[in-house]
Amino acid sequence: MIVRATWQPWLGLLALWTGAFVTACFLLHQPLLQSGQQLSAWANLLSAGRAEMSRSLYGRAEVYFHRGVEDRERQAFPGYFGQWLQAVAPTEHRHAEDAEGLETMPWLRWATEMDPQNMDAWLDAAYAAAYANNPALSLKILAAAARHNPRDERLYAQRGLLLLHQRSFAQATRDFDRALQLAAERKTEAAVLTQAELIAILKNKTLCAEMLGQRETAMEQLRRCVALEPARVVTREWLATLAAGGDLRTDAEQRLRGMETAARHADPDERHEESKP
Amino acid sequence: MIRLWVLARMVWLDLFRRKDPYVLLMVLGALLAALLSFDIFGLGNLVRYLKDVGLLLTWLLAWVLAVQLAARQLPQEERRHTIFSLIAKPITRADLVLGKWLGAWLAAAAGTALLYAATWLVVLLRGGNFELVTLMQVLLLHLCFLAFVTALSIALTTILTQSAAMTMAYLLTGAGYFLAARLPVMATGAAPAKTNVLLVLYYALPHLELFDLRQRLVHDWGPIPAGVLLGILGYGALWTAGLLLLAWLAYRRTRFTRGEMT
Prior knowledge:
The structure holds 2 protein chains of 2 kinds.
Chain A: H1 8-29, H2 41-65, H3 80-88, H4 105-114, H5 119-131, H6 135-148, H7 153-165, H8 169-185, H9 195-211, H10 215-228, H11 233-243, H12 248-265, H13 268-275
Chain B: H1 2-18, H2 20-36, H3 48-79, H4 83-88, H5 93-125, H6 132-157, H7 162-187, H8 192-204, H9 214-218, H10 226-251
């Protein structure tokens, strides 16, 4: 069928409108806004676009963490091209080490600029800074994250962990308490922290209490852990040791050092995940 | 050979008259300056993203430059009617195609080298540097990619109008870069008949992703083995020669009539 020349701009416009409509439907379908926010369709659409862009920038940071290697699916046609491609674009599983991890920062920064509610980006930026032995920067990033997301328990849990490693036990305890309080307040919403993460916070709080010489508080945290994971023998033994008396601080210091050594020798991917509350 | 150089020089003169590379350089400079001015949590010594974005922009701008430059050579001569004075000279159609390609390729290569220099300068200003051997390999393969793109654009202009040839050149090079590498993935789990079709496409399409070594340079993976480099260079040379042959075959019998040309 021959389309008249005068119709072509209108058909082009129709195609553009269809494209825009489909994009809008796709973006508006995403669960992008915090519940309770009442925004217009335009504001919603713009937020959705920004959140999508933010996720894409965050993905780029992940690629940087793996030294430029993106997830590559299986090659079905081996041969010269496959071999050459392997040489041109490596697929080995490697990680950015120490200060090299900071190279992910530009993408994380842009991801948080694009969508300040992107908690994964904030937490990874804080992790990258801590991993590069820059706890001051890590705290600065978490403070900025808290300004935009004051009710997200994950950032308090991560800041608590950072303060614990810095031996600021009282401040760390306050952050762990805040994280636990926010987690408990989420009654109708989906839980952000898993049970394992809640237990980790309780154990970290136990360590803080031990270092501060608060035996009862420490035992209380461990009892809560046992209630959550009754089959875990290590936790029961820890509780028994506390109940038996002895030097609280020496034991806690040993545990803390053991935790730090384990974190240093863990696979960076696991460390990366474990660092997140 | 001298005839080829004379034709190539004409392309160079045209390029500098139009000031294309300067415009591209200014675009790159403005974008890199914008990147440099961005505050990244107060960290001032990060260079990897600058290398990455700088090289990406270099690739995009060089691609545009190569297609625009090569695709206008023959149609422009025909449109201005200067083709008659060219074919009146003792040069063959093969000389014309090769001379135009050589000029377009070298001009695009020079413009690209300028873009690399600008990116390198910005990286140096930020306190970083490129690994020299890998950088040379990146540049060499990029020039090979440009040889392919210019040859393809010129070959397309022998059978299509300028704008159609440009569109096709962008589409084919885009498909060669993005689609060819994805074909094995698409074939995974596909029916045997579909796999065979994809296999044929896989070997028939140019694998332009092979010319892109940016990941190795940006993320410090080091240079590729010399054997692989030579293999890819040979592959690029074969494709370029094949396209120029096709261009000559299509152009050798083209007749030009003043009345029909607009």
